[in-house]
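Bug #77: duplicate submission created two jobs. Keeping one. Sequence:
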Amino acid sequence: MIRKIKSIQFAALILVLSVVFVQAVMGEEKDSPIAFLKKWSEKQSAIGNKIEKSHWAQANLSKEQSNEARQILWKWFKKNYKDSRLDSYKQKAIRLGDKVMKYEFKVFGEKPANGRSLFISMHGGGGAPSRVNDSQWRNQIRLYEPKEGIYVAPRAPTDTWNLWHQGHIDPMFDQLILDMVLFQGVNPNKVYINGYSAGGDGVYQLAPRMADRYAAAAMMAGHPNETKADGLRNLPFALYMGGRDAAYSRNQKARDWKGFLKELQESDPAGYTHKVVIYPDYGHWMQGKDSEAFPWMTRFSRNSRPKKIVWLQDDVTHDAFYWIGVPEGKAKSRSLTKAEVKGQNIHIESDAREGFVVYLDDRLVDLDKPVSLYFNGKKMRDGIEPQRTIENLYQTLVLRKDPAYIFPTIFELPAQNQ
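Kept job's structure:
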């Protein structure tokens, strides 16, 4: 009898302890940063406002919480941003200041489970009357037919010779990509860019300076002007040219770039994937042979977390590139920066000294361990204890508007003395 009473008492004690434990866990979940974020996302709809300075937004997250918070924030962003873009999407136009970029698109194939591909295809012309560039645009709309994806042919906002590599093009393409992600279910890791003639000029320029946005690029019958190939380290790049396309020495420039890309890959075998095709008997028109670029490009998906980055700023500058950035307004034209992750160490080599911002997540380093920063061979910050926060996730979401570049951890490297 005594044994039976003791057994009942022991079982009752276990039951009480279990209830207390469950209540404690439920209390922790109720007061967790994720719980607060979910409540915030249900009430907040304005994009761009700074997330409130509160304990939950600045609390250190676990790896699992960070991943969950990223998903919550991206879902919230898509829901609230989509309505503001609906009119522009229906009008098939991107507006920036006094510039308007119209576009047409076609849909090919069945939508894959992981989202559609997006092809941005730039027309030729440039330095010509509007009617000429309009004609080139209409031609571009029907020029290529990929097996699967959204094929978009934008109309350049201007009629200048450099119509595809002026400063307004970059943010307009950013917006075009985002609109297609929101409304057409495009996978942002399957975005491809190509262009013919003056559109090829644009590929030469935009591919290196926007390499972090694309999965691959293909240049057809264009001219590089002053641009260089260094920034293509993590972007597969195809080049197609007619061997007799001698105007502006386009054919010779293609041969030069073939040599540049080969040298870059030989010095860095893990990067600079490329393909160069020069058809010896063709002039400026390649008889559609260059369409083979599309199946080549679609072999690749974007690598948003390369362990090594080569960032060569153009005359049109950017504040961020993959997982590295500069303070707002401090980008230096033509500066060359190389950044690399080696274990728990971040190495930055650069001729720019205006300061850097490093964006990290657990795909780059182990954020549960200390991280050190080096600049031009000198250790600048040693044994930093990383913090994953909702505030950082939100800040990078608003900055990049790209799910691949939502980061929980941000380090700053101050400007260096000249």
